Amino acid sequence: MRIGNTEIRPAGGGLGCLLMILFSIVASVVLTVLLNLIL
Fold first, then answer.
1. Is the sign of the CA dihedral 11, 15, 18, 22 positive or negative?
2. Taking 70 as the threshold, does the pLDDT of residue 37 lie above it?
């Protein structure tokens, strides 16, 4: 993935990239549920 002149390589190759995507999805769902419980 390229942003401007810097190349960003996901840690662990393809598997690490998939894990990061999965983690971000899970984290956003958890944050949404927590916010709904608080508010």
1. negative
2. yes
